[in-house]
Specification:
The structure holds 2 protein chains of 2 kinds. Chain A is mostly beta strands. Helices cover 0% and strands 54% of the residues of chain A. Chain A has strands spanning 5-7, 10-13, 19-24, 31-38, 42-50, 53-56, 65-71, 74-79, 88-95, 105-106, 110-114. In chain A, the strands form 2 sheets. In chain A, strands 2, 4, 5, 6, 9, 10 and 11 form a 7-stranded mixed sheet that branches. Chain A has a 4-stranded antiparallel sheet with strand order 1-3-8-7, with no helix packed on it. Chain B is mostly beta strands. Chain B contains no helices and 11 strands. Classes of the chains: A mainly beta, B mainly beta.
């Protein structure tokens, strides 16, 4: 079975540019999570979707960040305009349900570098 | 506010040794606790999930225990192998927000051949 698929794997862009990260969750999973990982702050939850609806976006750092889930098989995380401090690894994860004891399955991440 | 701490931050052991990784959390009202493995340049792989009503879970050479009252979990790795080298993270799901995991900063393990 295919796991969580993220693209691109690496992204290098200049400050001020728009960045779009993509995620395809595991088929049949109704919960999707976007995380950011940095050396300083570790792994932080940015936003959580359940059945394509954003449930908790309290972790989104600023208005420059936005996320969408137009259907059950696709989500995007957009940064506009990007800044050097946004450099991090961004992970997408999905689970069968949001609550309960279902484990979260992670993609391989997008390593983002803003110059 | 739940805080999760993992000690040590890094560990280096010779092959074949049994070892214990530690995870502590400040709020004992948890729903479950999950141990993950992260290889360089990769995402997280779920190893074991312990529900709040359980004391331990086992998978192969891995055994995870949970003591809610003391706010601790341990991951025991038996007969370590070089392939076990990775970063191990624990994550706690609190009862107050059943979808959200709070992650520790991880223990970076190196098993020497």
């Amino acid at each position: 079975d295919a796991g969580v698929i993220q693209s691109p794997r690496h992204e290098v862009t200049e400050m001020g540019q728009e960045v779009t990260l993509r995620c395809k969750p595991i088929s049949g999973h109704n919960s999707l999570f976007w995380y950011r990982q940095t050396m300083m702050r570790g792994l932080e939850l940015l936003i959580y979707f359940n059945n394509n609806v954003p449930i908790d976006d309290s972790g989104m750092p600023e208005d420059r960040f936005s996320a969408k889930m137009p259907n059950a098989s696709f989500s995007t995380l957009k940064i506009q305009p990007s800044e050097p401090r946004d450099s991090a690894v961004y992970f997408c994860a999905s689970s069968l349900t949001g609550g309960g004891n279902q484990p979260q399955h992670f993609g391989d991440g997008t390593r983002l570098s803003i110059l | 506010k739940q805080e999760v701490t993992q000690i040590p931050a890094a560990l280096s052991v010779p092959e074949g040794e049994n070892l214990v990784l530690n995870c502590s959390f400040t709020d004992s009202a948890i729903y479950n606790l999950q141990w993950f493995r992260q290889d360089p340049g990769k995402g997280l792989t779920s190893l074991l999930l312990i529900q709040s009503s359980q004391r331990e879970q086992t998978s192969g050479r891995l055994n995870a225990s949970l003591d809610k009252s003391s706010g601790r979990s341990t991951l025991y790795i038996a007969a370590s192998q070089p392939g076990d080298s990775a970063t191990y993270l624990c994550a706690v799901r609190s009862t107050s927000g059943t979808y959200k995991y709070i992650f520790g900063t991880g223990t970076r393990l190196k098993v020497l051949a």
